[in-house]
Design goal:
The complex is a heterotrimer of chains A (315), B (298) and C (432).
Chain A: H1 32-64, E1 66-69, E2 72-76, H2 80-86, H3 89-121, H4 127-135, H5 142-153, E3 164-165, E4 168-169, H6 176-204, H7 208-216, H8 221-249, H9 253-258, H10 270-280, H11 284-314
Chain B: H1 3-10, H2 32-56, H3 62-65, H4 77-84, H5 88-119, H6 125-135, H7 140-154, H8 160-185, H9 189-196, H10 201-230, H11 233-238, H12 247-250, E1 255-256, E2 259-260, H13 262-291, H14 293-296
Antiparallel strand pairs in B: 1-2
Chain C: H1 2-24, E1 39-45, H2 54-69, E2 73-79, H3 85-94, E3 101-105, H4 109-115, E4 118-119, H5 122-125, H6 128-135, E5 144-145, E6 148-149, E7 152-153, E8 159-164, H7 165-170, H8 179-192, E9 197-200, H9 210-222, H10 239-253, H11 266-275, E10 278-284, H12 288-292, E11 301-304, E12 307-309, E13 312-313, E14 316-318, E15 321-326, H13 332-342, H14 345-353, H15 367-370, H16 375-388, E16 389-391, H17 398-414, H18 419-431
Helix pairs in contact in C: 2-14, 9-10, 9-17, 10-17, 17-18
Classes of the chains: A mainly alpha (315), B mainly alpha (298), C alpha/beta (432).
Chain lengths: 315, 298, 432
């Protein structure tokens, strides 16, 4: 392990994992001085986040219940915008496609990230080279990724030569199912690197002793991974899952540049619709309603993960 | 929402303070199958980028007629144009300034908040943490239009500062949680010693905690930097002057009404990605070990 | 208890935010005429004077020429990507800012007028407008709203048949003169040459279906129909609309294009022609220059009026870039001075050299224009526009119209849905 030449750990490995370290009780001092200091330390972050996030989301909520004309806010229309989404088959179809996109991407990206992190954690020749290469898509923006992949997948002049697979011509972006699959794949390509890094970091925190103990017990490599490593990194995997879910639900640029929602609206996601209503059609009220719906999905999924994790922990 | 829940969930790096002992790797070295996996993953990762490099070396006329991975008549013309006859270097500088500024401000705010919430119990802590957690769930698309009007009102529209403020607010939640987890993994005994010596809270933070938190700060900085660097929506909404434009938006110059300038676009992509790759090569070990909180303290 | 605390905290934060915002509120306009000094005006356009693109360079030359020609007005350029400029101008104008001089693409003009980003030109332009109108091959009804001319065209584009002469020669075909021949030749090109697509129409949802709509509109006109009526209501769901989709379905059924067209944007079509995978297309004249620049293309790419029937070719929509005065401009007179300079015969010639098709008829007869290598070809395009061109459909919600239509096109042509039903659904989606 090239890890470090640092001093040995000051804290002994915990006997039962995974438990976050308890805050040392002695620091929980409740003197007047220290109860003001932490507030003062935290205040700037809270103030900035409130100004830049909370105020605008209230503004968006307000927009979503009003008639709008370009940037002017008109009459109160109540839930009319929401009804035009949640009360129609098209609205629910769009929500369904967003679900497919998010779940499909997660199902591929998470195992890929865990698997790659596992591979990159093992001592190997050229490990640094592999790490840099494999994590490279991290620094590519969504626009560039979409343009490059569109070209690569082009059946006529695309360099991957996918023109005909097994004698059958394949137009990936012309087929509703394949287009969604391709969109998910490009999304995975863009988003697995950060997930891999976070999981890799978590893997390096797994105490070697646990592994050795399992090895002595004669467990197979896969069982060792499942019964020793995975529980140790589960909290990180959950957090990564939350991060990715939020990222996927809210993704606009990639979809807009890669498929634009087509073909046959097969990749028309809620996030894309929110963008188009606000920025292409200038229906700010309806666009705001779509983005509030997105927000609700984010919160529901976020809280669900937290609950799962909590349940997991409390066992 | 109890604090323990949020703390457990959102601290990706809060790990028990155990670490590997040098020289005692827990894994066997990679076998042939592992190498197959590594090579396949590398190919998947870099294939589109190789195509970008290949295209960037083709002349305008050859971009579509020469379909080979290795250009038949390689030329550096696109690079010359991008580097010396375009605004791309300016955009790069803008991106470095804005991403750098955002990261610096983010780290300061997030570190203060992380320290306060990791080391002190106080009224309003849970509510504040919850508020910050919730804001990371707000879709960017929901707040772009309101932010635009807010920025115009405050005079921050079309300024570096405006972008830095928005990016900072965007990144503070993630970074605060990362650093909080990191700080929680640092034993408080040192600080206790400092207190016994009579040092004030602020001095303890600056002189004792900050140096220990460096690896975590470095890793969180890179994560935030990359996020800001890659963003398109905020950058394109908050600024419209050409000389303040960021790289992600500036690349759109090559997507014109008259067609896509593939050669120059891909050359510009390569030019803008190279600094990031360099950063990554230099920082790779630190990013991983910094995120892996418990493993690197000492 | 906890939620209560959170809410209170949020309320306090919000109050703080508002308190911070109000005193800082200062909405200055971007410009203004200083008494006795030089008036600083800002031009917002999709062209980039800093780029090495020929049109960008021409823009730079014209702006510098204007600034040097007089001392009252100085114009600076803000370049914004064509896909973003409209939203940005509308937002900026509504917050009291925005450009003094504004470039608007003709299909977006109605939206801009509706959103109030432009001011009428008559007050400052006076009789000059009539001169420009008489000389314009761009129909001025396309820039006139409620009797007011809102902007001046400075570029035109038409949609014509692009064909690869080398490929037609290869199958021994001559240029099609009717739509039936077009279907036949396109199908033969696929069967007898290496191309994938005989005649491409881009059906992609990207770019809001622009490439499809650019074909659907003239096809509908040719069949005697209209897309929108005088009141702006959709009327395309009729026999003419069905016939327009029928022409596309014929091409599809004959194999002139296959599923690949579903993911094609205008960019993809042009690239396909340049790469030799598409033999023919109906595309905008503004892209011809770029497409010919590819290796091995050159004069192999020829352009002619698209065929319809024995009585004449397909009509074309005439669209183009126009220049107007921003609603918040403090110096409309200065802005007009610039527009006059920008639309002059001299400036138009500079743009023509950069490959822009001039909107002023008299430009085509100047010596400088005659010196251009493809002057005769460009004059041919002018004739076609003058005889068979109609101002592009205008709608305040053109983008929504466009995406509704492309959905109908995809379903009717590729999924065999009843064309009338598809068009009716599109009309109600747009009208609703």
């Amino acid at each position: 392990m090239t890890m470090s030449l640092t001093t040995p750990p000051t804290a002994p490995p915990p006997s039962r994992a995974p438990r976050p370290p308890a805050t040392v009780p002695a620091t929980r001092r409740r003197s007047l001085r220290s109860s003001r200091l932490p507030l003062a330390l935290l205040a700037p972050a809270v103030a900035l986040v409130a100004l830049v996030s909370v105020f605008p989301i209230l503004f968006a909520l307000n927009l979503s219940v009003h008639e709008t004309r370009y940037t002017q806010v008109g009459d109160l229309v109540g839930l009319q915008h929401y009804l035009s989404v949640l009360g129609t088959a098209q609205g629910w179809a769009m929500i369904g496609r967003s679900m497919v996109y998010v779940v499909g991407s997660l199902v591929l990206a998470l195992p890929l990230a865990v698997g790659l992190a596992h591979l990159l954690d093992r001592p190997a020749r050229l490990r640094r080279v592999f790490r840099v290469l494999i994590l490279m898509p991290w620094v590519i923006s969504q626009t560039v990724a979409a343009l490059l992949w569109r070209w690569l997948l082009n059946p006529d002049y695309g360099p991957l030569g996918l023109g005909s697979l097994g004698g059958q011509r394949v137009d990936v972006l012309a087929d509703p199912v394949l287009a969604m699959v391709a969109l998910v794949l490009v999304n995975v390509w863009l988003s697995y690197p950060l997930a891999t890094i976070l999981v890799l970091a978590a893997l390096q925190g797994v105490p070697a002793e646990l592994h050795e103990a399992a090895e002595v017990d004669g467990a197979t490599a896969f069982r060792r991974f499942r019964s020793v490593t995975l529980p140790m990194i589960a909290p990180t995997v959950f957090v990564v899952a939350i991060m990715l879910t939020l990222l996927y639900f809210n993704m606009v640029t990639l979809v807009l540049t890669f498929t634009g929602g087509g073909p046959f609206s097969a990749t028309q996601l809620v996030s894309l619709e929110a963008y188009q209503q606000s920025f292409s059609y200038f229906n700010l009220g309806l666009g705001a309603a779509y983005s509030v719906i997105l927000f609700v999905f984010n919160v529901v999924f976020g809280l669900a993960y937290i609950r799962m994790l909590r349940g997991d922990r409390d066992v | 929402m109890s604090e323990t829940t949020t703390a457990r969930v959102v601290a990706p790096v809060a790990r028990p303070a155990a670490r590997r002992v040098p020289g005692r790797g827990r894994h066997k070295p990679a076998g042939p199958l592992a190498y197959v996996g590594l090579v396949a993953a590398s190919a998947f990762a870099v294939l589109p980028l190789l195509w970008a490099v290949s295209t960037s070396l083709k002349s305008k006329g050859a971009v579509l007629s020469d379909g080979g991975w290795v250009p038949a008549a390689p030329t550096l013309q696109n690079y010359a144009t991008v580097l010396f006859d375009s605004q791309v270097p300016r955009y790069l500088l803008n991106s470095i300034v804005v991403a750098g500024g955002s990261v610096a401000l983010t780290i300061v705010l997030a570190l203060l908040g992380a320290y306060a919430t990791a080391r002190f119990q106080f009224r309003g802590r849970d509510a504040s943490l919850f508020l910050i957690l919730m804001t990371s769930m707000i879709p960017g698309i929901a707040i772009l239009v309101p932010l635009y009007f807010l920025a115009v009102r405050t005079g921050l529209y079309d300024t570096y500062l405006g972008m830095i403020v928005v990016y900072t607010a965007w990144q503070v939640p993630t970074v605060l949680w990362m650093l909080r987890g990191f700080l929680q993994s640092i034993p408080a005994s040192l600080e206790e010693a400092g207190r016994i010596d009579g040092a004030g809270d602020l001095r303890i933070m600056v002189q004792l905690v900050l140096p220990l938190a460096k690896p975590g700060i470095a890793a969180a900085s890179v994560v935030a930097f990359v996020a800001v660097w890659n963003d398109f929506l905020i950058a394109s909404t908050m600024v419209s002057s050409d000389h303040k434009r960021l790289v992600s938006v500036g690349l759109y110059n090559y997507l014109s009404q008259y067609g896509i300038e593939w050669g120059q676009l891909t050359a510009a992509v390569v030019v803008t990605v190279v600094p990031m790759i360099l950063l990554f090569v230099l920082m790779e070990k630190r990013i991983v070990s910094g995120l892996s909180a418990g493993a690197t303290k000492g | 208890m906890r939620t209560h605390l959170t809410a209170r905290r949020a309320a306090v934060a919000l109050a703080a935010a508002v308190a911070l915002t109000v005193p800082l509120a200062a909405c200055g306009t971007s410009s203004g005429a200083e008494p006795g000094g030089t008036s600083q005006l800002e031009l917002w356009t999709f062209l980039d004077p800093a780029s090495d693109d020929a049109r960008g360079k021409a823009l730079k030359q014209v702006v510098e020429g204007f600034n040097a020609s007089q001392d009252d007005v100085e114009v600076t350029v803000r370049s914004i990507n064509y896909a973003q400029i409209d939203a940005e101008v509308i937002r900026a104008t509504s917050s009291g800012q925005g450009p003094d001089i504004l470039n608007v693409y003709s299909t977006q003009l109605a939206t801009h007028v509706d959103a109030g980003t432009l001011q009428p030109l008559a007050d400052v332009a006076g009789a000059d407008l009539d001169t420009l109108k008489d000389d314009s091959i761009f129909p001025f009804d396309g820039v006139t709203f409620d009797g007011e001319v809102m902007s001046v065209p400075w570029e035109v584009r038409a949609w014509m048949l692009w064909y690869r002469q080398d490929l037609l020669d290869q199958i021994g075909a001559s240029l099609p003169t009717t739509s039936a021949e077009l279907v036949d030749v396109a199908a033969r090109l696929v069967a007898e040459t290496d191309v994938t697509t005989g005649l491409a129409i881009g059906f992609s949802d990207q770019g809001l279906g622009a490439d499809f709509v650019e074909k659907f509109i003239p096809f509908t006109w040719a069949n005697g129909g209209e897309v929108l009526d005088g009141a702006g209501e959709p009327v395309f769901a009729d026999d003419a609309g069905v016939a327009a989709l029928g022409m596309m379905a014929d091409l599809h059924d004959a194999g002139a294009f296959g599923d690949e067209a579903l993911s094609m944007t205008a960019d993809d079509v042009v690239q396909g022609v340049a790469a030799g995978t598409i033999a023919m297309a109906i595309e905008g004249t503004q892209r011809v220059g770029a497409a010919r620049a590819g290796d091995g293309i050159g004069d192999n790419l020829q352009v002619a009026p698209a065929p319809f029937d024995a009585s004449g070719p397909l009509p074309t929509a005439v669209a183009g870039q126009t220049m107007g005065i921003g609603a918040n401009s403090a110096d409309p007179e200065g802005a007009w001075k610039f527009i006059e300079y920008y639309t002059s015969v001299e400036s138009a010639t500079a743009f023509a050299e950069a490959g822009v098709l001039p909107s002023r008829s008299s430009v085509y007869d100047t010596d400088a224009f005659s010196a251009l290598g493809n002057a005769d070809e460009l004059r041919g395009w002018r004739e076609y526009i003058a005889e068979h061109g109609r101002a592009e459909v205008t709608s305040t919600r053109f983008n929504e119209l466009s995406s509704a239509l492309v959905s109908a096109g995809q379903k009717a042509v590729f999924q065999g849905e009843d064309p009338l039903a598809a068009l009716t659904a599109a009309a109600s989606a747009y009208g609703g």
